[in-house]
## 1
Amino acid sequence: MVAPRAMWKGFLKLGSVTCAIKLAGATSEAERVHLRILNRKTREPVKAAYMDESTGKPVEREDQIKGYEVQKNEYLLIEPEEIARLKIESEHTLEIESFVEKAQVDPVYLEKPYYVYPADKPSTDAFAVIREAMRRTKKAGLASIVLSQRERHVLVEPEGNGMLMTILHSPREIVPAQKVFGDLKDRKIDPDMTEIATMIIDKKVTRFDPSKFEDQYENALLELIKAKREGKQPPKAAPRPKENVVNLADVLKKSLEKEGIASPSSGNKQGAKRKKSA
C-alpha cells in the first residue's frame, strides 16, 4: 500500500512550544472493491448531479450557493467568501488545551484517526519532546482543529515515533444509550449458564491482532466477480442463521463440547461451595 499523502499542514502547540506538523489519514479504502453505478441499458457510468427541486433540472456549480433554512422554504444565503473570512486559530494550529487519561474517553466518541508527524527537520526535536512527555505521563491531549471548513475536537496521543490524532464526535451527535437500552430490564440469570459462558470466553481469549481480520462480504463479492468473468455459476448463498434459541442451556453445553471443554460437574460446584463457606 502506498503511504498516504499529507492532507493538512500547520502547527502543533503546547504552551510556548510550537512545531510544524502534517496530518495523513490513518485509514484508507483504496484496497476495497468499488462498484460503479451504470445505466442498465447503455452500460455507461452515471454521475451524480445537484437538481433544482422545482424544475428538476441540473444546477451548474457556478449557480450553486449554500443556504441556511430560517423557516420552511425560506433560506438565508451565505456566500463562499463569507465562510472563507471565518478565520480562527485552529484552522492552522493544533493547540493542545488540556490532558486526560485515555481510559476516560468513551469509545463512542471516537470517529476517525489521523497520523501526525513533523513537517520539517527543524520541528523534529520539539515534536519529539511533546510526544515523549505525553508518553511518560500516560496522558492524551485534547485539542481543536479545522478540517473541511469545520472545527473538530480531537484527541492526540503518542503512536510509535509519531502521534495519533482522533476526531471526536460532538455530544450532539451521540445518541444516549438510555434511548436504546431504556426498555431492557434486569433479568435473573442462571449462575450455571453464566459459568458455562465464562468458560467459553476464557477458552477464546487471545491477543488483539487486526492482521487476522477478514471481510467475508468482500471475499464473497470477489468470488462472485471471478465467477461471472469466467462464465460460471455464482457461489451459493450462505444459510441464514437460526433466529430463535430453543434451549439456551443446551446450546451453551454444545458450545463447550465444540471447544473441547469439559462441562462443570455438580460435584465440583458442591466442592466450590464448601470452599467458599469454609
Note: The helical segments are 80-84, 124-137, 177-181, 191-203, 216-229, 248-258, 266-277.
## 2
Amino acid sequence: MQTFNSLIPDNWPVEGRAFPVRSIDIRVEADDPAGISRFDSQVQENWEREVAANPHLFNGRLITLNEVRLEDGGVTATGQIVPYAYHLWWRRQEPPPPTFHSFAMPVIISADGAIIAIRMSPTTANAGKVYCASGSLEPADIVNGRIDIDANMAREAAEETGIRLDGLEARPGYYCAHFRQAVMFYRFFHATLDADDLMANVREHMRHDDEQEIDAVLAITRENRDAFDYAYSMLPVLELFFDGGLRR
C-alpha cells in the first residue's frame, strides 16, 4: 500500500507522469477531518484580494482530498467539501497545507488524431492556460457519498465545449498523475469527427455560452504540441498520448 500524507512520498509513481489505475473510489466526508476551518481567516483575506483583482470569480464549492491511497492498482481517497476560496488560498501556499486538489480530465481525440483543448479566458483564475475541458470535483458529482468521476467529466466537457461524451467512444480504463499535491484523473474519448469539425462545434457553443470561461479551442498535434501555454495537468496527457503509444 502506498499513501499520500502531508507530502507526496517517494514510493508513488514519479511526479507529472500518468499511470494506469483500475478503479477510482473517492468517499466524501461530512465533517472537517483535516481541520481546514483553522485557516478560515487567511482564506477570507486572500479571497478579498483575489476578487479585487478579478471580480468575475465565484466562490462555489468543490471537493478537496484529505487522504489518497494507491492499493492493488486502484486509487482510494477521502475528501470534504470546501469553498473555492480555500483552493485559491491553498495553491498560493508553499508548501501547500496537507490536503490535495483533485479533478478529472476527459481527453477528447479527433478522428484525425488531434487532442481537442481549450484556452481559459481572462475572467477565470487560470487565464491563458491551455488544457482539455475539465474542472474540480464538485458536490454535484457526489452519488451515495462517493464521487462519480464519469459524471464529472461529462458535465465539464458539456458545459465548456458543448461536446457530449456519451456520443464518443470511451477508451477503457483511467489514468492518474500527481503534481505538487494535486491529483489528476484522465480518460480518453475518441470522436468520429475531424478536428476542424469538432472545433467548429465548440466555437458555436462558445457563441451562446453565458459563462464565457474559454476564449479559444485548439487542436494539439505532434507538430504543434510545444506551441501553447499549458496548465500543469496537460503535460502527463501529452507525454502519454504522443510518446506513450496511445495514438491510433
Note: The chain has five helices and 15 strands.
## 3
Amino acid sequence: MLDAFASALALIATVDAELAGIVGLSLRVSLSAVFFAGLLALPVGAAVALFHFPGRSAVIVLLNALMGLPPVVAGLMIYLLLSRVGPLGPLGLLFTPTAMVIVQSLLIFPIVAALTRQITSDLWEEYREQLTSLSAGRLRAIPTLLWDGRYSLITALLAGFGRAVAEVGAVLIVGGNIAGVTRVMTTAIALETNKGNLTLALALGVILMTLTIIINGLAYGLGQFARRRIG
C-alpha cells in the first residue's frame, strides 16, 4: 500500500502523460458544464425570486428537489435523448465529451438556480425600496442584484463544480469511459481499481481530493468575505 502511494505521488510529480490527460479532460468537461449551466441558471433563479406567476411555488419546490437528482437518472435521461433512437440521436453526441458536459450541466443547473433564487430574494428584500425609488423594475433589477451578490453566486457555482467533477454514474452512462476520449478522473479511478492498478487510481484520488479541498476552501472564503461585506 505504501509503495503504491509513493508511486502515485511520483506519477503526480513527474506529470505523467496519461494522468495529465485524464485530469485535463475532467477539468474541461466540468468547467464547461458550470459555464453553460450558470448562463441559464443565474437569470432563471433570479427571475423566479423576483416575479410572481402561476405555479411559482411548484417551480421552487421542483428546483429544490432536483438539487438531489440521482446522477444515474440524469445519465439515463440524457442517454435516451442522445441514443440512436432518441430525438437527438442523429447528432452523434453519445459517448463524447459533449454528452458529458450536457449531463453535468443538467445536474448543476438546479443547484445554481435554487441557490441563486435564495440569494437574489434576500437581496431584493434588502434593496427593494432603493431600487424602486430609482424606477428600476424587477426586470431591470436582476443584473444589479446578480452583480451585488456575485461573491455568494460564485460560491453557488463552486458548489456546482464540486458536484460535477466528483460525478461518476452519469458520465459513465453517456461517456462510456473510453480511454483518451471520455475517461475522466472518477470513471478512471473506478476502472483502475477494478483492474488492480492502484498507482494510477491513487494518483487520481489524491488530485480529486485536493481539488475538493480547494473548492470547499474557496467557497468558505468567499462566503466569509460576502458576509463581512454585507455586515
Note: The chain has a mean pLDDT of 89.
## 4
Amino acid sequence: MLIDFSEILKTFGFSNQEISNRLDISIAKVELIKSKQLYPNKALAQKIIRFSKQKVSLTPPVVADDFQFGQPIKLKRVIFSIILIIFVSLLFTGFGHQPFWVFLLVLLIGLFVTLPSCFNDYWLINRNGLKINIFSSSGTTKLAQLLHIIPITQRTIPYQDIDHINIIYRTRPRTSPFDINPDIFSISLYSEK
C-alpha cells in the first residue's frame, strides 16, 4: 500500500520551483519524485501530505487470499508445546525420582511462563483491510487464549482508515554460527481513528 506522491505533486498546480521552495527540497528531488524514480523518506512524505489540501487516497494491495503476517494459533501446535513442556518437566525432575510437587512446580512454571512466550500477535491482510489478532500481556490470560478458553482480541482496520505505515527491518550481526536469533522486523500502523 503506497501513496502515489508523484500524482500528489502533479495535482498541486505549482511549478517545480514553487514546490521546491514550499517543501524545502531541491528541484532535482521534485523532478525525481514526479517521475517516480524517488520515493520520499518519512519526514518528506509527511511534509508532502501536510502540504496537499486533498485527501490522500491509498491503493489497497491486490491479494487473492488472506496474507498471513505472523504465526496464527493452531491447536495442534499448542498441544505439541504442552506435551514438550511435560516431557522437559519430567526430564528435569528425573522421571519420578523427585517428589511429585517438584514436578508440578516445574510443569506450572513451564506452562505459565514458557508457553505464552512462544506465541505472539499476528495479522491477516486481505482485500477489505487488516485483521489484527492481539493476545493479552498477562501470562495466565494469554494461556487461556491459547487454549481457546478466552477469545483472542481481534481488531479489523479498513484501508481507508490507515494514515501511514512504517516498516522497519534490520539485520542482526551474527556473533557465532550457532546464533539463531531472528533479524529485527516491525510494522507500525497509524490510523485516523
Note: Helices lie at 5-11, 16-23, 27-34, 42-51, 75-92, 100-117, 139-146.
